[in-house]
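Tokens in:
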């Protein structure tokens, strides 16, 4: 069976109760909630135990969009007890869950992406992507030192993250006013104002979690707790609520 030997403990129906995330997420894929995940792409056979493969995860956001992966070698595994005893999905660097082009939802400016992740030591990889047929498209990815986000190499900004093998809570906000771009991770923040936001709208409808492509290319090696998209620019108060939410749920150590 694909997965990590000895990872997690076999808690068949474990989930995490916490305060709600801020605002009204457009997409919300929550890997801490076992009731949202399935071992088949038709979302009929539930994930029930540690190390089960995740072939589908349903959406707790307003859009109701299911991510799937039909290729067995590219499916992440559920860990009943991840970091700080919080359940999560483990992506091995080649795994990806995605919704294909044609599901009828493009993401336009303004928008926000929030995510909770923990990369393995020295790992580098894409956490979430919204590929564009004519360019790199939106990427949010982690290196050994930084969280980086943007539409292409000219428009990427980075913020120093805490460290490997701990929960990091990131938020990338792209607005059509000042500050134009805000990227924060564990409350370390970088703002960029002198750029044109119109260039950062992916024109395709593919959304990928865990990698840059649907076949699991250049993906994160580590755990993902949840990924949320908003079709608004989160406000300062909403970002403060994100801090409270992730501290309560994951024990994120904020700067």
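Residues out:
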């Amino acid at each position: 069976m694909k997965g990590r030997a000895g990872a997690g403990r076999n808690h068949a129906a474990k989930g995490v109760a916490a305060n709600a995330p801020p605002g009204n997420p457009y997409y919300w894929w929550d890997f801490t909630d076992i009731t949202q995940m399935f071992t088949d792409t038709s979302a009929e056979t539930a994930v029930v135990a540690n190390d089960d493969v995740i072939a589908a995860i349903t959406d707790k956001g307003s859009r109701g969009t299911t991510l799937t992966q039909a290729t067995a070698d590219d499916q992440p595994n559920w860990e009943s007890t991840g970091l700080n005893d919080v359940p999560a999905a483990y992506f091995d660097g080649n795994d990806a869950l995605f919704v294909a082009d044609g599901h009828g939802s493009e993401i336009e400016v303004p928008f926000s992406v929030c995510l909770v992740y923990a990369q393995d030591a020295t790992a580098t990889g894409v956490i979430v992507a919204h590929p564009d047929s004519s360019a790199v498209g939106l990427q949010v990815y982690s290196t050994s030192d930084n969280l980086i986000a943007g539409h292409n190499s000219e428009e990427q900004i980075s913020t120093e993250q805490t460290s490997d093998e701990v929960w990091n809570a990131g938020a990338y906000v792209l607005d059509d006013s000042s500050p134009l771009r805000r990227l924060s991770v564990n409350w370390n923040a970088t703002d960029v104002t002198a750029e044109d936001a119109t260039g950062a709208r992916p024109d395709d409808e593919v959304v990928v979690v865990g990698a840059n492509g649907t076949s699991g290319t250049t993906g994160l090696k580590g755990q993902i707790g949840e990924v949320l998209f908003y079709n608004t620019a989160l406000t300062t108060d909403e970002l403060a609520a994100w801090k409270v939410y992730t501290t309560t749920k994951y024990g994120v150590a904020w700067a």
